[in-house]
Design brief:
GO biological process, one term: RNA modification
Helix content: 55-70%
Strand content: under 5%
Distance between the termini: 59 Å
Protein name: Pentatricopeptide repeat-containing protein
Number of strands: 0
Largest sheet: none
Number of helices: 12
Organism: Noccaea caerulescens (Alpine penny-cress)
InterPro entries: PPR_At4g14850-like_plant, PPR_rpt, TPR-like_helical_dom_sf
Shape: elongated
Radius of gyration: 20 Å
Structural class: mainly alpha
Keywords: Repeat
Length: 208
Amino acid sequence: HRCKSMSELNKMHALLITLGLSEEEPFASRTLSFSALSSSGDVDYAYRYLSKLSNPPAFGWNYVIRGFSNSRNPEKTIRAYIQMLKTGFSPDHMTYPFLLKSLSRLLNRKLGGCLHSSVVKTGFVWDLFICNSLLHMYGTFRDRASARKLFDEMPFKNLVTWNSLLDGYAKCGDVVSARQVFDDMNERDVVSWSSMVDGYVKSGEYNE
């Protein structure tokens, strides 16, 4: 039975508790997936449920961290991450992008730098998805130097990479650097053009 609401999930959970089956599969996976990721879910419920499991699955923490990163309370992502580390789990290539997204939303520069260091230590520094998330974070922080350094060190780049650097410069009003990136791009899309136009508007250089 697939639940369609938290009310249904609560009833199912209560029944399985009485039967001693609340931690059994596939219920555990479905509970975490629905409550953390569904638009009808409740990520706080997912976090409480995961914290009580005697053998919590590693993917469960990624579900919860992802859910909090998209919620109205992205700061809870950090709490979940700390709890994940306390329980002996290590972050993976799916964990970092959502953590970085939350730090971008929170504008937490200090933790952003710490998380970048963690990415390096855990060997995910050349994961393209994670690097693009880092670029986006530094762009949001208006940290052009860190963004450029990371970009130059990346062995692989895609359109998202270029757009992230371009958008970061545009957000800072640095249209000279933004235009240089724009001109160097082999491929452009609507995001590229939109970032460039926004940069000119913010800098007041409408005629460019």
